[in-house]
Amino acid sequence: MTQKSIPVKQPLLDWLRRNVAKLVVAPTFALMIFFVYGFIAWTGYISLTKSKMLPTYSFEGFYQYIRLWKMTPWNVAMENLLIFGSLFILISIVLGCLLAIALDQRVRAEGFLRTIYLYPMAISFIITGTAWKWILNPGLGIQNTVRSWGWESFSFDWLINSEMAIYTLVIAAVWQSSGFVMALFLAALRGVDSEIIKAAYLDGASLSRIYLVIILPTLRPVFLSCFFILTHLAVKSFDLVVALTGGGPGYSTILPANFMYEMTFRRNQIGLGGASAIMMLATVMAIVIPYLYSELRERKHD
């Protein structure tokens, strides 16, 4: 006996054909909502409780936030983020842009140079921090090497100087990220219409004026992309601090991510750690939301 096949209604088949792509990505989308946005919501609620080693769910209002902003290490971490983030973003964009302009001149061994500049981005911040810790160590690195050459009075002890140690993080982070910024700018420069540059040359414009007045203003989207990527890297910086300075001397180089980890996993203050995590999220959103709003307004007017 042959088994009769169950007929499938044509409307159902049509619906499946139209929505097969959505059905394929739906599980991944659902998991992302749960594990990303669900845990963000959970962290936000935990920050409104007095949770310590284990979470408690009794609502306590903004107790943890008031406590957070009264803590000296947190205020130092935010000041460090302002210093580190500002210098890291500014220097990386300027240096990356200059490197891209230099390579855009069709120099010899461009592929080799491009690889060298991009190589640091291929390694982790842990390796970067460890390498720069050796380089900046007064007893092993630059200071020891220069003194061995006969300059006994030379001093470069930023790594152990509480006033200057934050700038060692800037040095290491710029070294790792400026090549990535260079790649973005170089790709954008190669997309500029060469006829515009030729016309500017015929009008007597110098090379510097061509870049400053004609080319760079057209690269606004690249500048914004670099700014937001680097801002994201600055706010979430954790492993570089652990490997390079350990947050010291004292807590002079601690950043918000390190503070959050310390409170949550070492001192069993998950409510306080949750509050610091939400403040980090608010820092990023304060930058991203105005940008998205302005972009949406421009598209709406267009």
TrEMBL record:
InterPro entries: ABC_transporter_permease, MetI-like, MetI-like_sf. It comes from the Bacteria. Keywords: Cell membrane, Membrane, Transmembrane, Transmembrane helix, Transport. It is found in: Cell membrane. Its main location: membrane. The keyword Glycosyltransferase does not apply. Residues 78-293 form the ABC transmembrane type-1 domain. It holds the Pfam family BPD_transp_1. It is a multi-pass membrane protein. This is Carbohydrate ABC transporter permease.
